Amino acid sequence: IPSDNYWQKLSSKSIIEDLYLAQMKIASQIVDSINKIAEIESRYAPVALKIADMVKARRQNEALSEIRQVCTPTLKELMGAIHDYTELTKHRTRNTVLATEQAAEFQQWAMFISVSVTLMASSFFGWLLLKNILKTLGGEPETLNCYLASFADGDLTRWRPPHDVPAGSLLDSFIKTRDRVRDVVERDRKSTR
Question: What tens digit of pLDDT does each residue of 54-74 get?
Answer without folding.
Answer: 999 999 999 999 999 998 999
